[in-house]
Amino acid sequence: MSFDLRPYLVIPKLIEQPTWGGDYILKLKGWQSFFSGGKAKIGQSYELFGGSFLSTENDSRRLSFSMSNDHRNISLNDLIFQNPEAILGEKVAKRTKKMPLLIKFTQASGNSFQLHVKPDTKQTRWSPKAESWYYLEDGLLTFGIKKGVDITRYKNICLLIDNRIKILSQAVIFKKISLEQARKEAINFIKETNPWQFVNVHRVKKGTVVDLSLGGIHHSWEEDKKTLPHGNIVYEIQQDVADNASTIRCFDQGKIKGDGSVRNLNIDDYFLFIDTDPEHNNFAKMSRKNIDKQLVKTKYYSLNRLVVEKPLDKKTDGSFRHLFVEGGAVSITTQNAAIKLTAGHSCLIPAAVYHYQIKPYEKTSTVLESFV
Asked: How many other CB atoms are there within 10 angstroms of residue 300's CB atom?
């Protein structure tokens, strides 16, 4: 299969999450009526990853694109295999022959206390994973441990909670108590032990950027259903590394699955690799908000926010470009094709395109631009 010097619509991989997903993602995409009568709870939309499929449709709002699941879909892996330099860019292709980024559009409530190891970590089964967040709405999170915290006590609390949750899990599996009763007891026990006493809890405003690419930094999303009914609406850019190879967890919010099982945690490793440097755990120094253009710049990826009020002439500059419309609608024009890209949708521009133009359909549109 040959590639063309054109923008390709990215067919998002939608992940249903009945317990913590919602309708925000489908509504922004204009797809709510196409999935389960608008009742599907989507937790994540993979906007770009190694397993992405692409489409040559020229309008993201067309029904034919929203139902894309036929033989005309184009495998990103196949395109890269055919000509990695043309798709990824020469510098990227020298390092890898696969898409190095995972970009997710997420709606989530509380998740686990976790961290990723630092990039230079040696002799461990864990792989580093640089990750950054851009908040599309107000949210609630934890970032870093509190200054002067007693790490030993923090670890003991996590071990205590994990042990209690495992006991409740076994009681459910062997039908000694109901799932409802186990979950109630888990909530009460966690309130008593309060693991949040050891970490920094922050409310963040729409437009906040959180950079976790340093590694070793504690983080989690939190929930407040009264003031944040949508949970956390986050645009994530990260290295495409498998979760089970990179994410180290010490507390899973006491979650017990429908069958009574619970997630295995890695408490010892979490405390082995946690960064306790007060500077690195200072949220004010490791986050930014109200940024005009450059949201994130690391050696792994860059993320820009483009306000499109008039035609913008752009260059790929040796790397593929991934464009996601945060608001409004734009046209993307290259040598051989033009597409209409609407809110909540993405396109991929091969590095070999070189020149392309972004033009607003509405008075002001905003586009998130990712590249390596």
From this structure: 19
Strands 346-349 and 338-342: unpaired
Q: Which residue has the tokens 């879909």?
A: 73
| Amino acid at site 294 | Q
What's the rounded Cα separation, in Å, for the pair 52 and 47? 8
Distance between CA atoms of residues 230 and 273, nearest Å = 32
pLDDT of res. 68: 62
How many helices (H) does the chain have, and how many strands (E)? 10, 24
The SS3 assignment for 186 reads helix
Q: How far apart are CA 185 and CA 165, in angstroms?
A: 9
Residue 30 CA: distances (Å) to CA of 37, 69, 166: 13, 18, 42
Pick from 281, 278, 160, 269: nearest CA to 218: 281
- Determine contact, residues 253/110, Cβ cutoff 8 Å: yes
- DSSP label at residue 32: G
Distance CA 332, CA 314 (A): 10
State whether residue 263 is helix, strand or coil: coil
pLDDT band at 89 (very low <50, low <70, confident <90, very high): very high
Q: With a cut of 90, say whether residue 212 has pLDDT above it.
A: yes
Question: Residue 238 corresponds to which tokens in the numbers above?
Answer: 């990260």
At residue 11, does pLDDT exceed 70? Answer: yes
Q: Which two tokens stand for residue 97?
A: 């022959």
At 340, is the secondary structure helix, strand, or coil?
Answer: strand
Tokens matching residue 155: 């670890």
Tell me the CA end-to-end span of the chain in Å, nearest whole number: 25
pLDDT of residue 356: 99
Taking the complete model, does pTM exceed 0.90, yes or no?
yes
Are 105 and 25 in contact by the 8 Å Cβ rule? The answer is yes
Q: Please, which residues bridge with residue 15 across strands? A: 44
Higher pLDDT, 40 or 128: 128
Alpha carbon distances (Å) from 290 to 140, 160, 263, 280, 305: 17, 40, 37, 21, 11
**Using CA atoms, how far apart are residues 255 and 186, in angstroms rounded to an integer?**
8
Q: Over 90: is that where the pLDDT of 8 sits?
A: yes
Distances, alpha carbon 123 to alpha carbons 82, 180, 276, 326, in Å: 35, 42, 20, 40
Strand-pairing partners, residue 368, are 305, 324
Give the DSSP H/E element, type plus range, for residue 280.
none
pLDDT at residue 292, as a whole number: 76
- In three-state secondary structure terms, 370 is strand
